[in-house]
Amino acid sequence: MKSKLYILTLIALLSFSVSCTKENLENIDYFAFGSAHGFCLRNCADFFIVRDGNIYPDDFDYYTGSALKFKSEALTIEKYNPAKKLIDDFPAYLIKNPDKTFGCPDCADQGGFHIEINQGGEIKRWHFDTNISNLPAQVQDYVQEVFSVIEKLK
Asked: Mind listing the pLDDT tens digit for each residue in 65-116?
């Protein structure tokens, strides 16, 4: 009987710890993500923002690292769903390591991936090299997923 109680307690604790990790992105004001290249001729940035149950494309040609601007007309629900999955799949590793740069985005004119989250008025940013092998193993699959979603949304 004691072993059953011990196992149930352990399962409850594990379930609680897993659910806490996922809750970190449930109450976000927005989730922005995209890719940018520093040396190009025209539209050098492809960013999107998810907020209030919609997704919006960027309204700028170059990413400078300053305030992001987005169009006021939302994209279709078919475009929203893959972006929403990025929020659902957001790695706990990134939550524990906010405001970091991984690899060397755009150092060799290869561009970079970027994520910005506003949660409770606090903005957190992550920057990623496009060479996935230069990233920590904990985020490689996720950054590949970000790349795939950006390509679908362009």
From this structure: 878 999 999 999 999 999 999 999 999 999 999 999 999 999 988 999 999 9
Strands 112-119 and 122-129: antiparallel
Intra-chain end-to-end CA distance of the chain, in Å: 58
pTM of the model: 0.82
Question: So where are the chain's domains?
Answer: 27-153
* Architecture label for domain 27-153: 2-Layer Sandwich (3.30)
- Count of alpha carbons within 13 angstroms of residue 51, beta-carbon side: 17
H or E segment and range at residue 91: none
